[in-house]
Specification:
Layout lengths: L8 E11 L6 E11 L2 E2 L5 E2 L2 E8 L2 E8 L1 H27 L1
Antiparallel strand pairs: 1-2, 2-5, 3-4, 5-6
Length: 96
């Protein structure tokens, strides 16, 4: 029986470049978001896809998270709330 290959599509890659204070070298960290789309089984069932978040430094992957669609939605909502809270606090500071 052949192993099934999962195909992930790259959707976003965020790179952050910085100067390493300890070595004086330019370094890079990154976050990559990939999607495995939903698929239909031969029996007619539809299986959810997955979202994979990978975090790395330079060319090495330091960690990866495989999220269900529900987990990805919760992460999205948490990020949105954090950004909104940040913007409200910043606006309050500007008004003071």
């Amino acid at each position: 029986m052949a192993d099934k290959q999962f195909v992930y599509e790259r959707r976003l890659q965020v790179k952050h470049f910085f100067d390493d204070r300890a070595t004086g070298q330019k370094r890079r960290t990154w976050l990559e978001l990939q999607l495995k789309p939903p698929e239909k089984t031969p029996e007619g069932w539809v299986n959810d896809g997955k979202i994979r978040l990978s975090i790395g430094e330079d060319r090495d992957i330091k960690g990866a998270f495989l999220l269900s669609v529900d987990e990805a939605l919760r992460l999205l909502k948490a990020l949105q709330m954090a950004v909104e809270d940040h913007e409200v606090e910043k606006a309050t500071m500007w008004r003071e």
